[in-house]
Amino acid sequence: MQALVIVAHGSHLNPDSSTPTYTHADTVREAGVFDEVRTAFWKEEPHFREVLRTLESDEVFVVPLFVSEGYFTEQVIPRELRLDGFDVEQWDSDGTSADSTTLSATDVAGKTVHYCGPAGTHDAMTDVIVRRAESVTGDPDVGPGFGLAVVGHGTERNENSAKAIRYHTERIRDLDRFDEVRDLYMDEDPEVDDVTEFFESDDVVVVPLFIADGYHTQEDIPEDMGLTDDHRTGWDTPTEVDGTRIWYAGAVGTEELMADVVLERARDAGADVGDAVERVREATRRAGAD
After folding, report:
1. Residue range 18-58, pLDDT digits in tens
2. Which of 17, 96, 216, 269 could form a disulfide with 167 if both were Cys (CB 3.0 to 4.6 A apart)?
3. How far apart are CA 220 and CA 185, in angstroms?
4. Which GO molecular function terms does the record list (predicted)?
């Protein structure tokens, strides 16, 4: 038997924080390729600490629904899952290339745990960002005439946070699909507050590389960009700011295609997922078109 465990941050303050995790778990569950699919959280129940004990499967694939490598993926999750002998060097990562490592857990017998890198740094995440741009504009061919901004939190405490943003920005730029592609940040330069200064295009899609909508994506960023003076009154999509139409997408992690990234992470670690990746990609494209 094989099981998938999606681990995410969750929140005591934002009840919607865990919604994307549950949604993507349901999509994977419906694909029918895992005997068990579980979710676990740092700030909500069920907690990381308990989840392995709830499984009957002997092969377990753990996929962190986090944007970047860092404190949670390298310290908190391995510690709380009691992954015996985990060392971040096993990932041999440059900050965006963690794939998976195979371990056992000290407090559950007979289980092989394949601990994967975060969903946010997988190559398939690039496709999710582009899909997010398609969703917010309602145009499956969006690109020509448009700029695209990939927005991250940015923090001096974790250089990998910006690495993930730059990684996907460069990959999208290489597609040569959008007229301009830039990485912008909340807490470091170049800042999203000045988004219109970084683009010449009349239309700019702004996609925050966050897992869930919350304080930053629904209050800080819209107000900082000038979409609204008060987030409680909402904003139009697009909203014109300084002569530029801003198509604000909200958190990329809410895009249904994220389930594909989770599946690809598990497949890369050795999970037998059959043709589920292709089926999920097709299903989520149809859902987005409805």
Report:
1. 999 999 999 999 999 999 999 999 999 999 999 999 999 99
2. 96
3. 12
4. lyase activity; metal ion binding
Of 159, 160, 183, 161, which Cα lies nearest the Cα of 171? 183
d(CA 233, CA 68): 32
Q: Residue 290: which pLDDT band, with cuts at 50, 70 and 90?
A: low
* Dist CA 110 CA 116 (whole Å): 19
Identify each DSSP E strand in 51-93 by its residue range. 59-64, 83-84
Distances (CA, A) of 153 to 181, 204, 208, 223: 17, 19, 8, 15
Distance, in Å, from the CA atom of 49 to the CA atom of 79, rounded to the nearest integer, reads 9
For residue 46, say if its preceding peptide bond is cis, omega within 30 degrees of 0: yes
Contacts 24+ apart (CB under 8 A), 230-239: 237/136, 238/203
Please name the amino acid found at residue 219.
Answer: E
Per-residue model confidence (pLDDT) at position 289: 60
